[in-house]
Structures are given as structure tokens and as C-alpha cells.
Amino acid sequence: MPDSLAIDIGSYTIKVVQGKPGKAVKISRTVEVFNSVGMAIPADDSAAEKLATLLSDTIRDHNLVRKDVRLSLPEALVSTKVIAIPPLSDAELASAIQWQAEQNIPIPYEELSLEYQVLTRPSREEKGQPMLVLLVGVRKSVVEKYLNVFLQLDIEPTILETQTISLMRAMQFTPEDPVTLMVHMGATTTDMAIVADGQLRFVVTNNNGGQLLTRTIERVLQLDTRQAEQYKRTYGIDETQLQGKLREVLLPVLKLSIVEMQKAMQFFVSQNPTQRVARVVLSGAPAQLPGFVQLLTEQLAAEVLTAAPFAGATGEIPEANQPAFPICMGLMMREKN
User: CB of 232 within 8 A of CB of 205?
Assistant: First the structure.
């Protein structure tokens, strides 16, 4: 079987995994390069051309394949909803899906690219229970801009899905797992999703990310960007480092994200009073901030883990920055239709 290529374009770096896809991925190489364009979806033709050139150079410099290329869309550009509706057959749902999309997705239907998936359908014995349906909507113009970058390179992607779907697959959730808050921290946004009984329940995105931490260090400690980034990654909020000064600088910013996590957990419990969020799984480069796991454990009263997206994989597994790659790994684990 030939290699496949999974690409996760972030506003700060581009992550790539190449290898044999499947539930147990065999990796031939991983790549992470700085995104000099500074955006995941190009805003105009000039940015699209620059991003295409950067991707072309990356593929050439690292001798990457150009077939079976798999992509994810940033969650900030997507509307993901889990809706509860009376049980319907597949045919009935197909007829009703436009109305459901118009009620739940804030994008005009004529501009909407929509996918849906039945998460749970109650049995005949479970009278009165709703079925849960996942709706994923994005503007057609956004999809076109994204795909056109690759078409410039004569690459026709085979898979395009949202980051949260890729993340869920990489985490390999089962119905036996505790209710979990997934937190994926990027450079400019943080995506949060609740998973219960192995199924996605809701997704929310906020505009706090790793770059806000870096800029705060720059401003308060009067450092340049490179130094600030190095301080953040090396010392984090470890109170034993730098006399705790960096911790004092970063805590107010981090608490903004913690409040959003608490809100997500509280919302789930308000809808499901008999359940509690017992686990938090962190992914993304900023999630590796020294001392952050301990802080979250104290503040959220839950088990906090850092994602291990390469569990079960073989081959050329990177030694560093593994939690930054779950989106790529989720794409690699997807079975083609």
C-alpha cells in the first residue's frame, strides 16, 4: 500500500504525517515547519499563493508524497452542532436535514456545505428518548479557498474533515471512557469538545491561544518574540523557575482559558445532571506548558492528561512535541469511503 499524507495547517506551524494509514498507522516521517503566512485559510489571492508556495517547498524539501492527501478544517471556521430530535429513519432524516440545518447552523443554506451523522438512535424499548445527530456546516467559499491552494499544486485532496472529528478519532474514545473534555490549544484559538459514551456532545471555540501567552511575556518582560517563545516553552508556569516571575505573568491569561473550560463542563452537567466531566485531555503545542497540567488538575477537579496521538503507531515517531500531531494522526487513522 502506498503512503498517504495528512496535513494540519495551523496559523503558527504546519504539521505533516506521512505513512501507511489505518487504525495502527505506520509512520515514514513527520514534519513541522513554521507557517510564514500566519494563517490557516488564505484571506486573499496573495496569501493563497504564498501558502501554496510554502506547501510546495515543504513537500519538495522533505520528499513527501502527493497522493491520498488528507486535510482538516480549523474548527473556528466551522459550525459543529449535536442536536437531539425525535427518532427518524434514515430516509426521514434526509428529508428533514435542511430544516434542521436552517434552525441550527448560522449559515444560509444556499451557501452551506453540510455533513451529518447519526450518533445515537434509541431502540424501540427506549420510548421517549431522542436520537442525537451531528451537524457539521461550513461556508462553501471557505472550502473552495482551502482546496484551491492544493489545486494550484495539482493535488486533489481525498479527505477533508473538521479538526474535532480528527481529534476524536486520534483519541480512540470508547463508550466505557469517562466523560471527557478535549482541549486542543492552537496558536490563536482553543477548541473544546465534550465526549460522553464515546460520542461527541458539543464543541466550542474561543480566541485564546499560545500566541497570546507569548505576546504577554514580550510586553511584560520586554523580550523579543523568539526569547518570549523560548521562555514560555522552557519555564512555563513552574513556580520554581525564575523566582516564579513567569508564572505571575502567565496566570491571568491562563485563567481566562480555565474559566472557558469550567463553563463547558458546567454546561454539560446542566444538560446531564447525573453525569460529571471526570477527565480532561490536552493537545496542541501550548498544552505542553510546564506546570499547566498540575494547575488544571487543581482548578478543574478532574484527571488531566496530555494527548498521546502516536499510541499504537509504529515507524518514525517523533521524540518531541507529540501532542501537536493528533489532528494529523486522526486523519491517518480514517478509513477511506
Answer: no
CATH homologous superfamily of 174-307 equals: ATPase, nucleotide binding domain (3.30.420.40)
Q: How confident is the model at residue 337 (pLDDT cuts 50, 70, 90)?
A: low
What string of H, E and C letters represents the secondary structure of 253-273? HHHHHHHHHHHHHHHHHHHCC
What phi and psi, each to the nearest 5 degrees, are found at residue 181? -100, 115
Q: Confidence class of residue 68 from pLDDT cuts 50, 70 and 90?
A: very high
Helix (H, G, I), strand (E, B) or coil at 138: strand
**214 burial type by CB count under 10 A (0-12 exposed, 13-18 middle, 19+ buried):** buried
Sheet with 303-306, side-by-side order of all strands: 199-206, 190-196, 180-185, 279-283, 303-306
User: Any idea which fold 79-138 has?
Assistant: Dna Ligase; domain 1 (3.30.1490)
Q: What per-residue confidence (pLDDT) applies to 320?
A: 87
Please give the average per-residue pLDDT across 32-55, as a whole number.
Answer: 93
Helix (H, G, I), strand (E, B) or coil at 146: helix
Nearest Cα to Cα of residue 185 among 51, 255, 284: 284
Domain ranges of the chain: 79-138, 174-307
Is the pTM higher than 0.90? The answer reads: yes
Contacts for 158 with CB less than 8 Å, ≥ 6 apart: 68, 69, 70, 336
Task: Tell me the percentage of the chain whose pLDDT exceeds 90.
Answer: 87
